[in-house]
Amino acid sequence: MENNFFKNIEKKTGVNMKDIFELANSLQNANFKDEKTVRGIIKRVSQIANKPVSKELEDKMVASIINDGKKLDFNTISKMMNNKK
Fold first, then answer.
1. pLDDT for 57-78, tens place per residue?
2. pLDDT digits (tens, 9 = 90+) for 14-35
3. Which residues neighbour 77 within 8 Å (Cβ) at sequence distance 6 or greater?
């Protein structure tokens, strides 16, 4: 893909594409049944998105991913972050 494409995404979202690619690479071989790994990924996504995640929400997300077998991707985490209740 073109560099301009990524620059436009960065402008619109405020998210650095280098950070996204590094995160994506780290997810390829991640063990999503390991609580420490899942918490680290959630924290990293939270930092990249500049959206704080409370301890309560983090616990719910971890349980959902590890115990309930939810797929871990940006969309799942985003939905969970936006459905704070």
1. 999 889 888 887 656 566 766 6
2. 888 888 888 888 888 888 889 9
3. 42, 45, 61
Instruction: List the one residue out of 7, 70, 76 whose CA is nearest residue 33.
Output: 70
Residue spans per domain, the chain: 3-82
- Quote the pTM value: 0.69
Helix axes 35-49, 55-66, angle to 10 degrees: 130
What is the H or E stretch that residue 82 is in?
helix 74-82
Element (H, E) at 15: none
Residues for the chain: how many in total?
A: 85
Cβ pair 64, 70 in contact under 8 A: yes
Residue tagged 């209740």 (tokens): 85
What phi and psi, each to the nearest 5 degrees, are found at residue 21? -65, -40
18-41: buried (b, 16+ CB within 10 Å) or exposed (e) per residue? eebeeeeeebeeeeeeeeebbbeb
